[in-house]
Design a protein that fits this description.
Helix content is 5%, strand content 35%. The chain is built from 4 helices and 29 strands. It has 3 domains: 130 residues, Immunoglobulin-like, CATH 2.60.40; 235 residues, Glucose Permease (Domain IIA); 154 residues, no CATH class. With 531 residues, it is mostly beta strands. The strands form 6 sheets. Strands 10, 11, 13, 14, 15, 16, 18 and 21 form an 8-stranded antiparallel β-sheet that branches. The protein has an 8-stranded antiparallel β-barrel with strand order 22-23-24-25-26-27-28-29. The chain has a 5-stranded antiparallel β-sheet with strand order 1-2-3-4-7, with no helix packed on it.
Length: 531
């Protein structure tokens, strides 16, 4: 979650009442009075009072008899947006945040809730802690190997621990796993896009693969491992929140996060037609924290029209992937979750198949050279090659703050070889250098110096940019395989002027509809990028 203005000196008022209900209220006051002592005269809920402007606060009621937590925001600003999240339920927007504690993962001794209020670009956040230890013993929790006693996590923690705490702080077990089955049967696969592709909001090389089923068949999508589904996100139209990233137009387009152990996770995204039990659990939420056991080969959904599935493998038993020279650029914020810390540990899924399944999967890849599954870490320190971020930002976007559903990618740039044909060069710019909402990746007229050959000693270099179009000539209406294999268009779009100032600093300016010329020079529109 985005942490944009974490307030200090939070007031925590705990009020007790008869029966099975407890109330907690918290505001964003800058003072720190002592925690109040419950008396018979105190109400079931307590609202901060102030002679000045009303401050953001939340009243939360814990009903042990259901059990259930009900929260209401108070002291809100007109026109602001509210976002709630907790370690016992998914996030929701609105004035009220309410959920029952029924699942095993929810029966924890303390529920931590955050409420964020944003007005334009200004945000503030408050935190509450609710004692729910009274319900822990009601339903036995059979998790003898649960790794839920890790210390508090922050941006300075081990990045592997930051990843473990992204979705579920009650992970179980150790070690990685091979895949006995593929998420999509090889016979149903038309082709696989390897790691390192550039597309849409992915301005930097993509760290997961795309599995495309054949058209005109029903392709089952299954779990490749035993474990627990720990997070569900519905990109489809049935959720009452944001439909960011949905492309199928169906009611449910699911992302599954499957935990095999505290060291190994599989993310399977854009899965349509999930089982009814999944639809019932996610309801109309955008995302939901769950703990649902899943077996190898268990059905997660079906695809009917060649719609692709994302497959990401996160293996914390291995070191940070090579080719990312500044790992800290991929996570930040007070809890380390700003950005995509899991990217540091994502791997080629083909590495987790034994023969003969591995060869069957490799044969589906569009990449014909080794490694067939591709890679996404292209950074070479001291050269232009790799990922770059506008000065003062990181992978998480503006000011290094995570904007999960905003245009975080607009501050990105990448100078990399094509992931299918490394002899071709790609220039990818987050806002197309024209403050557009979507970025563009361009081809480069050859011959041109490879990005890994440009150093500080090279001075200013120029690249002629070309629009990319399907190599088979099918144009912008291309689908599937045709759309995925692109070549330079016949005419240039402009010139990119570049200079490596030092090992971690680059200067870039794009001149559209302008040919390469010795007269070109940087102007006040030039940008500085860092690793």
């Amino acid at each position: 979650m985005k942490l944009l203005g974490l307030l200090v000196g939070l007031v925590i008022l705990v009020a007790g009442c008869s029966g099975d209900k407890d109330s907690v209220s918290e505001s964003s006051s800058m003072e720190q009075p002592a925690t109040s002592t419950p008396t018979s005269e105190q109400p079931a809920t307590s609202t901060p009072t102030s002679s000045g402007p009303v401050e953001l606060a939340a009243d939360c009621l814990f009903d042990k008899s259901v059990p259930k937590i009900s929260c209401r925001a108070i002291g809100t600003t007109q026109g602001s947006t509210l976002r709630w999240e907790s370690n016992a339920s998914g996030w929701r927007t609105g004035i009220v945040y309410e959920f029952e504690l029924k699942e095993q993962y929810q029966l924890i001794p303390e529920v931590k809730i955050t409420l964020e209020q944003c007005l334009s670009s200004e945000c503030e956040e408050i935190e509450l802690s609710i004692d729910t230890s009274a319900i822990v013993g009601k339903t036995p929790i059979d998790n003898p190997t649960s790794n839920n006693n890790r210390p508090s996590i922050n941006a300075d923690s081990d990045p592997a621990d930051i990843v473990r705490n992204r979705w579920d702080m009650n992970c179980v077990g150790e070690g990685s796993s091979m895949f006995a089955v593929s998420p999509m049967a090889p016979g149903d696969i038309d082709f696989i896009k390897p790691l390192g592709d550039l597309a849409g909001v992915h301005i930097t090389p993509i760290s997961h693969q795309y599995y495309y089923p054949k058209e005109n068949l029903v392709a089952d999508i299954v779990s490749p491992v035993d474990g627990n589904i720990i997070w569900l996100t519905n990109r489809g139209t049935a959720n009452a929140g944001n439909t960011f990233g949905g492309a199928s137009g169906q009611s449910h387009e699911m992302q599954y996060v499957i935990e095999h152990s505290c060291d190994f996770y599989v993310v399977i995204d854009h899965v349509t037609d999930p089982p009814e039990k999944i639809k019932n659990v996610v309801g109309d939420n955008w995302d939901t924290r769950v703990r649902i056991p899943v077996k190898t080969g268990e059905l997660l959904g079906r695809h009917y029209d060649g719609f692709k599935v994302d497959v990401g493998v996160i293996d914390l038993t291995r070191s940070v992937v090579t080719g990312l020279v500044n790992p800290k650029a991929y996570y930040g914020g007070s809890d380390g979750q700003a950005g995509e810390p899991f990217k540091l540990f994502e791997r080629d899924s083909f590495e987790y198949y034994d023969e003969p399944l591995r060869s069957a999967m490799e044969d589906k890849s569009l990449r014909t050279i080794s490694p067939r599954g591709g890679f996404f870490g292209y950074d070479i320190e001291g050269t232009l090659q790799g990922n770059w971020y506008v000065e003062g930002t990181s992978y998480a976007g503006t000011e290094g703050k995570n904007d999960s559903f905003g245009a975080y990618y607009k501050t990105h740039a990448a100078l990399v070889p094509d992931n299918l044909d490394p002899s071709q060069l790609r220039v990818s710019i987050g806002d197309d250098f024209r403050d557009k909402e979507m970025g563009v990746n361009y081809g480069v007229t050859l011959p041109a110096p490879s990005f890994d050959s440009v150093t500080t000693e090279s001075g200013i270099v120029m690249y002629e940019l070309r629009e990319l179009t399907p190599c088979d000539g099918s144009g912008h209406t291309a689908k599937g395989r045709s759309k995925s294999i692109v070549c330079n268009k016949d005419f240039a779009r402009g010139t990119a002027l570049l200079q490596l100032i030092d090992a971690g600093t680059m200067k870039l300016e794009v001149f559209f509809d302008t040919p390469i010329s010795s007269d070109l020079a940087f102007t006040n529109k030039a940008r500085i990028y860092n690793r």
